[in-house]
Amino acid sequence: MGRSPRKDLLAGLTVAVVALPLALGFGISSGAGAEAGLATAVVAGALAAVFGGSNLQVSGPTGAMTVVLVPIVHRYGADGVLTVGLLAGLVLVALALARAGRWMAYVPVPVVEGFTVGIAGVIALQQVPGALGVPKPGGDNPAAVAARAAGAFLDAPHWAAPGLALGTAAVMLVGARLRPAVPFSLLAVVAATLLARFADLPVATIGHLPAGLPAPSFGFFEAADVP
Q: What CA–CA distances, in Å, run from 214 to 31, 190, 208, 226?
């Protein structure tokens, strides 16, 4: 930090801008909520920076854990996530003490890439009900749940949710290709959130919400109803 503060601060800001929408998205997709994803990213990043063994490290949310946490949140709630996190930390400490990391050099690259692609496929299947705007069907098999969600959508199609999902994805993909330096992931998440929040309200009423409308919850604080 003392040698190149400007470059380090710019790199930290870039990582934070990328990690923010990831943390929100992974928190929602795992079932723990956006607040949990944001808080976890902040706390984990700070702890990794203080106790990590590298001067050039990047810590952030990972999609692989989403697949593991979805059934745990569904069955055991947030307490189950804390228990699994503690056990995973103990296992990692044990592996570090045993110097097991050196064996990773013998894992072929296609195996690692296949694992990553498989995780991406499972995450995509888990998001099908939300992208189609239908209640999530029961079941533990992501492919079967996605198929039942698609069937429910075809029975009573409504295009607002799929349009919002496709529009968000288009902004992220096209924007990243045209202007890589602009955080289009964050902008797309904010725009989609605002659009979903106010889509059913006339433009003239924005800022003058009707009486009795429940206010949103922000993290650990629950706002009172709008007067």
A: 22, 20, 13, 6
Q: Which residues of 179-195 are buried (b: 16+ CB within 10 A; e: fewer)?
A: eeeebbbbbbbeebeee
Positive or negative, the CA dihedral 9, 10, 15, 21 is positive
Residue 23 contacts residue 38 (beta carbons within 8 Å): yes
Is the alpha carbon torsion for 45, 46, 49, 51 positive or negative? negative
pLDDT digits (tens, 9 = 90+) for 46-73: 888 788 777 777 776 676 777 777 778 7
The whole-model pTM stands at 0.56
H/E segment holding residue 221: strand 221-222
Which residues, other chains included, contact 194 with Cβ-Cβ below 8 Å and sequence gap of 6+? Answer: none
* Residue 222 host element (H or E): strand 221-222
Write the pLDDT tens digit of every residue in 104-127.
888 888 988 898 888 888 888 888
Structure tokens at 59: 């810590």
Supply 125's token pair. 């299947």
